Every structure is written in C-alpha cells, then in structure tokens.
From TrEMBL:
Belongs to the DeoC/FbaB aldolase family. DeoC type 2 subfamily. SUPFAM superfamilies: Aldolase. Keywords: Lyase, Schiff base. Its EC number is 4.1.2.4. It comes from the Bacteria. InterPro entries: Aldolase_TIM (IPR013785), DeoC (IPR011343), DeoC/FbaB/LacD_aldolase (IPR002915). The gene is deoC. GO terms for molecular function: deoxyribose-phosphate aldolase activity. This is Deoxyribose-phosphate aldolase. GO terms for cellular component: cytoplasm. SMART domains: DeoC. GO terms for biological process: carbohydrate catabolic process; deoxyribonucleotide catabolic process. Transmembrane segments: none annotated. It catalyses: 2-deoxy-D-ribose 5-phosphate = D-glyceraldehyde 3-phosphate + acetaldehyde.
C-alpha cells in the first residue's frame, strides 16, 4: 500500500453508539448516485479496465484444486485477450488486484503468481460462518500467513453485533489483526446477516478501531451479499473514521456482482463519496469471480463493435 497501515485505536463507542441509519434515505441516495452518472464509450472502457485492476479474482469452492487455482492465476496475469488490450491502446496488460483462495491453496497461488507482483489473499477464521473456537481461527490465520498470504480476509462473530457486545467484537478483531502480522487484514462483516444498516455502521467502526486495513461487505455465501445501500453505509463509516484519525481505510464489496454494469456502479459510489484515491487497488477491491468474463465481453464489444459468444472468453 502507498499509505500508512491502520494501527487502530482503543475502542471508542461514543463514535457510533447513538448512530441510527435511515434505510429509505440510504436507498434514495444510492439510487440517485447511479441515476446521475452515465459513463459511455471510451470513458466506460477506461472504467472497466480500472475495475480489473481493483478485482480480487476469487475461487472459494469446495472442489477447488491446485490446477484450478493455477488457471485462475493465469487469468489474473492476463485478464483480457491480447487483441482487446491492443485495440484499447494499452501499453501493458492490466493485472488483477489480487487472487483470493482458501488457506490450503495459498501455496499453489504463490507459485503460480511468482514474479507477477499480484498479491495472494486468503480467507480465514472459519470462513464463511466464523463459528470456530478463537484459537483455531487464529491458527488458520497463522497457517495462511506461513504459506505466503499477503492479505487475510477474516470473518466476524455476528452474535457480538446482535448483542451489542462491542468490546467482544473489538477484542476478537484486534487479536486477529495481531495474528496477521505484516499481512493486510480485511474484515468481512457479512452484512446480509446484520439486519440493520445501523448495525452495519457500528460493526464497520469497531472493525476499523480494532485495526482492519479494509472493511468488506460479505463472504459471498450469505442470502444477500453486496448492495449499494449497504456499501454506502460502510463507506460513510470509513469516511468518518478517516476524518477523525487521518487514516485511509480500504473497502471491498463482495458477492453477487456479475456484470460490467455492477463494476461501474460501485466505482461511481467510491468516486462520489470518497474521491479518486478510492479507485486504486490499495484502497478498493471487488470480491468477484464471474464479473471478469462480462467485463472482457464488454471491452471486446467496444474494440470490435460486436459481442462475442461467451464461450470465446476464458471463464474467470
């Protein structure tokens, strides 16, 4: 990262304990953001290329193998076909922001990405539910780091949020942050499970106070994953944290994003709410797997004027 990491600070509940988020107002603001912006032609192509740079290309399936991970890493190195890159006038092939895998696949990903400069992210802490004893969750973090993970995506205990037990949530996340060592930590809040936007804001603030480098919406396994109103709530929280501390926190929406249009929507949110800095991979990532295929298809249409059949593009 090009900025200082988040060292965290002592739990300060008066930053958020009286916060109440008005869901209809958040939904109206989210809808107006997207309605007021229309990105077309070469500008759309540029935003789609930027989305590739900010993508954590992900495989988190029960049937993952080292060969599948190697293929995903090859796609991360060359995410679009050569003729598309040439048609766009790119001087070099873009690369994804990271590759995200399970801890047991970190070694395979590191080997496949050697000398590429692409970080390896690993989920940990009993992903996706997080319902494991804390010592086992910490051991999983340390295992992933020992395997070479550059970034760790942890999951929180949702019950602490429901109970309003902010000290327990803070202590858990701070302990996980310590276990990560030099690896950057993304705190997954599983917002689809948290019921209210007020809970989302408060959990976001506790995670940042506990030292999270990124806050992340979802595991991708909940019934409801990333949405614009939830993302708006989280980026407002990290903006408030930045205003108080001067520290820049990253944001990662994950789950349910499948199209180039989705990539544009979240980038518009980041630009409007936080500014240009949050369109860079050190502060913004998409947790996505299938979205890259549609982005490549849209870019080919821009270059050639025709939509290719989906089988022409490698499955991300």
């Amino acid at each position: 990262m090009s900025h200082d990491r988040n060292a965290g600070l002592p739990l300060t509940t008066d930053w958020f304990d009286r916060i109440q988020i008005n869901r209809p107002a958040a939904e109206r603001r989210a809808a107006s953001l997207l309605a007021r912006r229309s990105v077309k032609k070469e500008h759309q192509a540029a935003w789609l290329v930027n989305a590739i740079r900010c993508m954590d290309l992900t495989t988190l399936a029960g049937d993952d193998t080292e060969n599948r991970v190697a293929r995903l890493c090859a796609k991360a190195r060359r995410p679009i076909a050569d003729h598309i890159a040439e048609g766009l006038g790119l001087t070099e092939m873009p690369k994804t922001g990271a590759v995200c895998v399970y801890p047991t696949m970190v070694g395979a990903a590191k080997r496949a990405l050697s000398n590429s400069g692409i970080p390896v992210a690993s989920v940990a802490t009993g992903f996706p539910a997080g319902l494991m004893p804390l010592d086992l969750r910490l051991a999983e973090i340390r295992y992933a780091v020992d395997q070479g993970a550059d970034e760790i995506d942890i999951v929180i205990t949702r019950a602490h949020v429901f109970d309003g037990n902010w000290q327990a949530l803070y202590d858990e996340i701070a302990t996980m942050r310590e276990a990560c060592g030099d690896a950057h930590m993304k705190a997954i809040l599983a917002t689809g499970d948290l019921v209210t936007l007020s809970n989302v804001y408060k959990a976001s603030m506790v995670a940042m106070q506990a030292g999270a480098d990124f806050i992340k919406t979802s595991t991708g396994k909940e019934g409801v994953n990333a949405t614009i109103p939830v993302s708006l709530t989280m980026v407002r929280a990290l903006r408030d944290y930045g205003d108080r501390t001067g520290v820049k926190i990253g944001f990662k929406p994950a789950g349910g994003m499948k199209t180039g249009k989705d990539a544009l929507s979240w980038q518009i949110l980041m630009k409007e709410e936080l500014g240009r800095d949050w369109l860079e991979p050190d502060l913004f990532r998409f947790g996505a797997s299938s979205m890259l295929g549609d982005i490549e298809r849209q870019l080919e249409h821009y270059v050639t004027g025709r939509y290719a059949a989906s089988h022409r593009h490698a499955i991300a």
